[in-house]
Amino acid sequence: MVRLSVNVNKVATLRNSRGGSVPSVVEAVRVCLAAGAPGITVHPRADCRHITPQDVADIAAELSHLHQHIEYNLEGDPRPDFLDLVCQIRPHQCTLVPVQPGEITSQAGWSTATSASEIRRVVDRLHAAGVRVSLFVDPELPAVEWAAQMKADRVELYTEPYARAFEHGGWQLEESFQKYSRAAEMAHELELGVNAGHDLDLENLLLFRTLPYLDEVSIGHALISRALFAGLGKVVREYLDVLHPGQ
């Protein structure tokens, strides 16, 4: 069964645009859980432009009594303050993502030229803290092999290229989906779990949910954007219905 992890970054973005505490990120988490979401994702960036370290701690406190049922996923680049935060909070999963200076959002997965010794050191530290590690990668076979060599537990496939191919349809969509399928199959062969995220929405998820060995999708921007008009709880349930039709 494919798990949905709701990324609540955009709730914090809206709050920070005005200052203060409204809308409440913790209240957003509560609504998502009440609607049936089995996971929550946040990505605290160095500039704190949306999720802050205090948000991370507040959400962890909210989820503390649900630890066995609700997965908490922290995304971020392996900078010292982020790693310290992860080791303090000890979420179920940490998704390590590369960050490019000035980027608005993630633009690519890890390069296979990234220092292996540095990434392995980070992975070892997170494992020692009892945290599952996922590496954000492009849907390329060498990238999946690299993640396995880094001793990661999972890969998160970067799905913006799939989303753009979905918009075109036809052979571009078929070719893209097959590329992701091959990456997922290799990950499974290498005993890596398979997560995915970036620009997935209610339409393109209908096909992507059939990806072999898919464990989890992390969805934020599209879900929160629709929630502005339809309501957060309703939209979470819509995504769950897409992932688990007939249930």
CATH architectural name: Alpha-Beta Barrel
Rounded to an integer in angstroms, the radius of gyration calculated over CA atoms is: 17 Å
Structurally, how many domains make up the residues?
1
Task: Give the SSE string.
Answer: EHHEHEHEHEHEHHEHEHH
Describe this structure in words.
With 247 residues, the chain is of the alpha/beta class. It has one domain (3-243): TIM Barrel, CATH 3.20.20.70. Helix content is 48%, strand content 17%. It has eleven helices and eight strands. The chain has helices spanning 9-18, 25-34, 53-63, 80-89, 116-128, 141-149, 160-168, 170-189, 205-208, 221-230, 232-243; strands at residues 3-7, 39-42, 71-76, 93-96, 132-137, 154-158, 193-197, 214-219. The chain has an eight-stranded parallel barrel with strand order 1-2-3-4-5-6-7-8, surrounded by eight helices. Helix 6 (141-149) links the parallel strand 5 and strand 6 (154-158). The longest helix is centred in the last third of the chain and has 20 residues, at 170-189. It is globular, with a radius of gyration of 17 Å. It starts with a strand and ends with a helix. The model has no long low-confidence stretch (mean pLDDT 96).
Outline of the structure:
The chain has helices at residues 9-18, 25-34, 53-63, 80-89, 116-128, 141-149, 160-168, 170-189, 205-208, 221-230, 232-243, and strands at residues 3-7, 39-42, 71-76, 93-96, 132-137, 154-158, 193-197, 214-219.
List keywords for this structure.
247 residues, alpha/beta, TIM Barrel, 8-stranded parallel beta barrel, 11 helices, 8 strands, 48% helix, 17% strand, globular
